[in-house]
Design goal:
By secondary structure, the chain is mainly α. The protein has helices at about 1-20, 20-40, 45-75, 80-114. The structure holds adenosine-5'-triphosphate. It comes from Salinicoccus bachuensis.
């Protein structure tokens, strides 16, 4: 039952992200595009491993960033340097994941597209 609840709450979180978090939806759309492109060019196994890992890494970091933002907003609605540090660090995590995904996308797809 506890295991079932953990899944239930996790899916509620996923549903919330897909309804309310525009950034998550944009990342999800880029991920779906990358997967469609992978099917079009018929990626090999290694290509799929990197592309799917990059897509999930971006989605996971965005989910945690949204969680950090929500927790910070719950703690204070006033300016606080630690609130800024927490939110900026969360945003940096997403940025790093997005850079990683862009580099992987270029390295994997360019040889197929040339
Ligand atoms: N309470 C706060 N104290 C200090 N700085 C804050 C605070 N809230 C937000 N900031 C600063 O403003 C930036 C943007 O915060 P905001 O809450 O608008 O998040 P966001 O990245 O625009 O995400 P979203 O659009 O999903 O709300 C933060 O990265 C941080 O630098």
């Amino acid at each position: 039952m506890r295991l079932f609840n953990r899944f239930k709450f996790a899916f509620m979180g996923l549903s919330w992200l897909m309804r309310k978090d525009t950034h998550f939806i944009v990342h999800l759309m880029f991920g779906v595009l990358a997967i469609i492109l992978g099917m079009v060019v018929d990626l090999d196994r290694t290509g799929w491993l990197f592309i799917i890992s990059a897509v999930f890494l971006v989605l996971v970091t965005e989910a945690f960033n949204t969680a950090v933002e929500a927790a910070v907003d719950l703690t204070t609605d006033k300016y606080h340097p630690m609130a800024k540090a927490a939110k900026d660090a969360g945003a940096a995590g997403v940025l790093l994941a997005a850079f990683y995904a862009a580099i992987i996308g270029l390295l994997v797809f360019i040889p197929y597209l040339l």
